[in-house]
Design goal:
Layout (H helix, E strand, L loop, with lengths): L3 H4 L12 E5 L10 H7 L4 E4 L17 H12 L6 E6 L1 H15 L6 E5 L17 H8 L7 H4 L2 H19 L13 E6 L7 H5 L9 E6 L5 H4 L1 H16 L4
Parallel strand pairs: 1-2, 1-3, 3-4, 4-5, 5-6
Length: 250
């Protein structure tokens, strides 16, 4: 069991009346990405990033390679909160968020809204897996995701430091997929980038197969990391939709 303080960030002193948005990382990403989101939403929505082992202050810990182990630890931590909640996950984080919500619903906890961002639906295996490739081939494969900063690409030391973490996340992501869609009780919002080569509009729309409740989708300007490129509009939409779904019954 991983304690909340390590796995769930920014969770101290949350009012029982607050709605929490648990945010799941993309491959290689950490909780620090959501620091601006915490400030943006302030008291309107308590943003609690999930900090997986193997990154930032947890860099010395072994990363997860198995989805079910990860999901069980996250669900155990979230179950300690009685608050209403929203789930947000980008890319790999979308698949984690889906499995977390599925297990939470089995425990009679239902999100006000699940937001799947830049993520293909889980039951379709990765058509071009890269986790098994050589170092150079793996690096070339990562170009599809537009997610590695130039300063890391140009620094061999930094690259050698980050590659094992990113590869572990891709092993986790690519080795997991259910056989068929399973419908969540909660409503689903799927968002993507209009130039994303990994999660196209058709991929985003397929999240409709994963809920028995309301489904909506939106496209933003940008590629796979449109959440950085068009961040202001992404945050505005999340704010709008969170208020809409917090104030309605699922």
């Amino acid at each position: 069991m991983i304690y909340n303080g390590k796995l769930i960030k920014n969770s101290e002193g949350i009012s029982p009346q607050s709605t929490i948005m648990f945010c799941f990382p993309y491959a290689g990403g950490g909780a620090a990405f959501y620091a601006k989101w915490i400030q943006y939403f302030d008291k309107k929505l308590s943003v609690c990033p999930i900090q997986l082992p193997g990154r930032e202050e947890r860099i010395g810990e072994k990363p997860y390679l198995n989805m079910q182990s990860l999901v069980k630890d996250v669900v155990d931590a979230i179950m300690r909160f009685d608050n209403d909640f929203i789930l947000f996950g980008h890319s790999m984080g979308g698949k984690i968020a889906f499995e977390v919500e599925k297990m939470l619903e089995n425990n009679k906890r239902v999100a006000k809204l699940a937001i799947f961002s830049g993520s293909r639906v889980p039951h379709i295996p990765e058509p071009q897996p890269i986790s098994h490739l050589t170092e150079q081939e793996f690096l070339i494969g990562l170009e599809r995701y537009d997610g590695i900063p130039e300063e890391i690409k140009m620094d061999k030391r930094l690259l050698n430091f980050y590659m094992p973490i990113i590869r572990s996340d891709f092993i986790l992501d690519e080795s997991y997929y259910p056989d068929a869609p399973s419908k969540l009780i909660c409503p689903v919002l799927a968002i993507g980038g209009n130039e994303d080569r990994e999660a196209t509009l058709a991929d985003i729309k397929r999240w409709s197969e994963y809920t028995q409740s309301k489904f909506q989708y939106y496209l933003f300007r940008g590629g796979h990391f449109f959440i950085k490129e068009d961040e202001e509009n992404v945050l505005k939409l999340i704010h709008q939709k969170s208020e809409e779904f917090i104030n309605r019954e699922n």
